[in-house]
Design goal:
alpha+beta, 4 helices
């Protein structure tokens, strides 16, 4: 949750302020659930090094809800990936032209993605143990400002943001 706060991922809103709020069920139909993904990290010898937890969006619910609302075209989930042969070809070209190959890892990559005006607004229920209620007892949900892991189109949004940074800003 520290990463969420550091990257300004969410804004908390009362669930009854959403257009699909149903006062009988006390739920809004457009809100997608989140869950925890837990991992045990091991060192090179196979010994337990640390425990990691990641809050992820249930993207399968997001797709189903968009489809039932007739907004199937809104969720474009395609994000390009390079084949191994393409990478080998680029390395060979770099060797021939005497260029350096550099590699880097972006920490919390999806949390650095940026929504555009065309992207759908996503509301999620916080994961278990993080849920809150306002003073009227109405659940608080998160309106996402940046994409999260598990979100249906998060990979595409991250790719678009990274490409924009490399091409337009860095002139790569």
């Amino acid at each position: 949750m520290d990463n969420f706060d550091r990257h300004g991922v969410k804004v908390e809103v009362p669930e009854d302020s959403l257009p699909s709020w149903n006062s009988n069920t006390r739920r809004a139909s457009e809100v997608v659930d989140m869950l925890w993904v837990l991992k045990k990290k091991k060192d090179e010898n196979g010994n337990l090094h640390k425990y990691k937890a990641r809050a992820v969006v249930c993207g399968n619910q997001q797709k189903a809800k968009a489809k039932s609302a007739g907004k199937d075209s809104v969720l474009e989930t395609f994000a390009p990936a390079a084949r191994g042969t393409t990478f080998k070809l680029l390395c060979a070209i770099c060797c021939i032209t005497k260029r350096r190959v550099r590699q880097f890892d972006v920490e919390a990559a999806y949390l650095n993605g940026l929504f555009d005006g065309d992207d759908p607004i996503v509301h999620v229920r916080p994961p278990p143990n993080e849920r809150q209620f306002d003073d009227r007892g109405v659940p608080i949900v998160w309106r996402l400002i940046k994409p999260l892991y598990g979100e249906a189109d998060a990979g595409r949004i991250w790719h678009r943001t990274a490409k924009r940074q490399l091409v337009e800003v860095q002139q790569f």
